[in-house]
Predict the structure.
Amino acid sequence: MGVEEKNRQPVRQEVTDEAIFKVAKEIVVKFIEVGRLTPASFEETFDHIYKAIERTVRTK
């Protein structure tokens, strides 16, 4: 690896809303599978998970 390659900044790709949704969905599915999420708390929990992922990937 040359000096030029070591100093190159990584390319940052934009994360789509769809990608965030898919990740949030997978997390929610796992929570349901292990019994940590009930239908009564689904909406609030999904919203928290989605927003946490969005903040994480879109923070500069």
The chain has three helices and no strands. The chain has a mean pLDDT of 87.
